[in-house]
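input
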Amino acid sequence: MLLPTAGFYLLAAFFEIAGCFAFWAWLRLGRTPLWTLAGVASLVLFALCLTRVDSVYAGRAFAAYGGVYIVASLLWLWIVEGIRPDRWDTAGAVVSKLGSENNFRIERRARGN
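output
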């Protein structure tokens, strides 16, 4: 495997957020519909990255990804949109990441690692 699981989760988060933002930009920010072409390509890459995660069960991989997605979304909010997350955003991200971390542990335990 070229990337460890964490790397695929990070790439998946970037591609999912970028793909959805492309549609947001078209429908909410008045950008050209051509943005959706990049959005669709990005969402395909998101799906490909998520299927490369080292997990036996799709549902467990998706649940573990949830915390990564929330943290990455707040980073997008801050870096791309220029809005700094507040303490409640941060608290929610920490709680969700801790919860999703449990899915990583379950997967490792199921494999005997």
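quick obs: Residues 3 and 52 are 9 Å apart (CA to CA).
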